[in-house]
Amino acid sequence: MRRMILTSSLLLTLGTTAMAGQVYTWVDKQGVTHFSEQPPNDQSSTALGTATPAPRLPAPEKLPPAKPSDPEQEAVERKVKRDIAIQETKRKEYCETVRANLAQLENNPRLRAQINGEMRRLTEEERQARIAETQRAIESSCR
To answer: Which residues are the signal sequence here (predicted)?
Structure first.
């Protein structure tokens, strides 16, 4: 039933678009812009051009069947695909780690970090700077 309603509304929309005529626009004394099929009698209007549907193109010619590819080329393509999959896995792991770090930074105001070989508590300014840096890393790498 939903498909039938969707199909009929789509056909109705396409039909009205294909049969669209001239459209006129004008601004009344109150500054309201109007659009209509007929121009107003008492004031000037501007005729808007309506788009005409594009002509139907002939069916594309069928392409010849693909030639069997070179075994060396197939090996290169497999290697590239494998390398891309490895890089994507590393990127996902990085994003998970960075998001976990951001959650720690945002939810824990009293953090300690190892700086110059010694453990010390981060100041609020340092924590906010690390939050901003982590958010930038997420935006650039994890979207």
So the answer is: 1-20
